[in-house]
Design brief:
6 strands; Undecaprenyl pyrophosphate synthetase; globular; 9 helices; about 15% strand
């Protein structure tokens, strides 16, 4: 059971860069694509655990803007796995009242996949136990450029005054602007970079890097990441003394 003290130290929004599928396949001498298939199955227990801990939002990086440059067979496989994931997740989303969303540039996706994503979003839009977001054809720089474009259009349409534009307003235009900012960003696979993922939303996120390959990532290690997060002092530009004083006052 999650206590009130746990809720204070747990992140509200967790983001995961699910890296290491191909290396997992090579390590275990599997066929091409099998690493991605194994990785797809890891998501269910991670979602369940986050829901049990009352995490408000979980956002996972499934396919980046740059991943279109991968071999065509791998791109095709990832698109098929995304379709399979949507079909498999829908009964669980409805059972546990989880809202399912997708972020990214949908223009390069097939009409069938776009329709499937939209239908899933519409069916789960009113669910409120947690929000699961899958980033597909997504890039943080694309996200911010799109936000800037939308703000410019609203300025031209006299919906927004130039003087109103600040970081708060901009944050309402990027993807997931209605959700809490990312508190904890986890990257599996051993690389130490953000790879153009949620650059705006994760501006003050605590970063957790692990060499564990995504298909080997477990609920136990996710819980370890939560403990590491709980032990971090989040200052947001303030001093440690200020943070300690605020804790005393609260």
């Amino acid at each position: 059971m999650t206590t009130s003290e746990d809720c204070q130290t747990l992140p509200k929004h967790v983001a995961i860069i699910m890296d290491g599928n191909n290396r997992f396949a090579k390590k275990n001498q599997l066929q091409k694509g099998d690493g991605h298939r194994e990785g797809k199955n890891i998501l269910d227990p991670i979602v369940d655990y986050c829901r049990s801990k009352h995490i408000q939002a979980l956002t996972v990086f499934a396919f980046s803007s740059e991943n279109w440059n991968r071999p065509q067979y791998e791109v095709d496989l990832l698109m098929q796995l995304l379709e399979d994931t949507i079909h498999e997740q829908m009964p669980r989303m409805e059972k546990y009242q989880i809202a399912l969303r997708f972020i990214g540039d949908r223009s390069r996706l097939s009409p069938h996949l776009r329709d499937l994503m939209l239908h899933a979003e519409q069916r789960t839009a009113k669910f409120s136990s947690m929000t699961l977001t899958i980033a597909i054809s997504y890039g943080g720089m694309w996200d911010m450029a799109e936000a800037a474009k939308q703000i410019a259009a609203d300025v031209l349409a006299n919906k927004v005054a130039l003087e109103q534009i600040d970081s708060t307003l901009f944050g309402q235009y990027v993807c997931l602007g209605d959700l809490p900012p990312v508190d904890l960003l986890i990257r599996t696979g051993g690389d130490y970079r953000l790879s153009n993922f949620l650059l705006w939303q994760a501006a003050y996120a605590e970063l957790y890097f692990t060499p564990t390959l995504w298909p080997e990532f477990s609920v136990e290690e996710l819980d370890d990441a939560f403990h590491v997060f709980a032990g971090r002092e989040r200052r947001f530009g303030k001093t440690s003394e200020q943070i300690q004083q605020e804790k005393l006052e609260n």
